[in-house]
Amino acid sequence: MSMTRRTLMAGGLAAGPALSASAAGVAGGGAPAAADPPGVYRFAVGDAGVAALHEGSLSRPLDAGFVRNASLDAVQAALERAFLPKDALPITFTPLLLTLGGRRVLIDAGFADSGPPGTGGTLRGLAALGVAPEAVDAVVISHFHPDHILGLRRKDGALAYPNARILVPEPEWRFWMEDARMADPPEALKANLGAVRKVFGGDVKVERYAWKSEVLPGLTALDTPGHTPGHTSFLLESAGRRLLVTSDVTNHPALFVRNPDWSALFDMDADQARATRHRVLAMAAAERLPVAFYHAPFPAGGHIVRAGSGYELVPLQWGLPHA
Ligand SMILES: [Zn+2]
Predict the structure, then answer these.
(1) Which stretches of the chain are assigned E, i.e. beta strand?
(2) Residue limits of the Metallo-beta-lactamase domain (predicted)?
(3) Residue-wise pLDDT tens digits, 220-252
């Protein structure tokens, strides 16, 4: 057992160019010595480059309310089937760095340095790739939950990517920035509205994009509401290849790809989110599209296949050509 593990780890380290580059990044970036080496996974979509960046993970204690419409027994059985702990759900965060027409484009921002312990890997991943925060040209946001937007700023309030255009979904902006809602926030939204105000208040310049339009050349915004009112997925297209960036259409695939009818606590409109989830998973399976998730186990991508009454995520193969 220990032999196997050692062999696997040695093989992984030797085979991973991103990891050897990352060692230099950590040493140069002043990251805490205790932090894991950055997780970076690169692959190509036509002429576009994609790097999945392991922002980190946290372990969410599992209670009966996490999946609103399934028994705790059923949820624990699904976790056991996936060889996961039964009392806590590991939730990971995976922003993507795209190299698109010569531009460096981040999709979602993680937490930067203001997240829970075990996060902050996006900045270290960028350092491992030799990409300075100043060199990021655009940050495209899928929706306004804190784990996607807080990383637009450092803890001290400074913009984390000072030269980047910040592109947000119009319907999401309209919902969260509405004056009346800001002035008199419903209890359930208070913390989130606070995060939205912190990130988008002040002098930050934000551009709003519409659904079903190109956010940037080769990157189309897809309307996938339900998780939040303006929740957005993306279709990346380059040289005849495509990648479907699902954002938070599902949380952990072992639960919600497998059981698309299940509703996580985080889905603001459970019925709409369920309909969206079915539509997106069915499309990914039918069109054999590679997909990227935000909350799947790293590298948080693969393909979707039908399995029984639900679907499965087949993980991406490490070591495919990358741009
Ligand atoms: Zn999320």
Answers:
(1) 40-45, 48-53, 56-61, 88-93, 96-100, 103-107, 138-140, 165-169, 206-209, 214-216, 219-223, 232-238, 241-247, 291-293, 301-307, 310-315
(2) 91-295
(3) 999 999 999 999 999 999 999 999 999 999 999
CA dihedral 220, 244, 248, 221 (to 10 degrees): 10
Nearest CA-CA partner of 199 in 140, 248, 155: 155
CA of 30 to the centre of ligand 1 (A): 27
Which pLDDT belongs to residue 279? 98
Distance 135 CA to ligand 1 centre (A): 25
pLDDT of residue 202: 85
Q: What is the Cα–Cα distance from 208 to 190, expressed in whole angstroms? A: 23
Distance in Å, CA 125 to ligand 1 centroid: 19
- pTM exceeds 0.85: yes
**Ligand 1 centroid vs 191 CA: distance in angstroms?**
15
Distance 15 CA to ligand 1 centre (A): 30
Rounded Cα gap, residues 193 and 212, in angstroms: 26
Spacing, Cα 294 to ligand 1 middle (Å):
7
CA of 108 to the centre of ligand 1 (A): 9
| Dist. CA 96 → ligand 1 center (Å) | 13
pLDDT of 34 reads: 59
- Which tokens go with 222? 């897809």
CA dist 139 → 48, 110, 217 (Å) = 16, 11, 14
Residue 319: the pLDDT is: 79
From residue 235, alpha-carbon distances to 161, 241, 291 in Å are 23, 10, 9
Q: How far is the CA of 78 from the centre of ligand 1 (A)?
A: 21
How many angstroms is it from 8 CA to the middle of ligand 1? 31
Identify any residues that bridge with 49 across adjacent strands, giving them in sequence order.
44, 99
The mean pLDDT of 213-223, rounded to a whole number, is 98
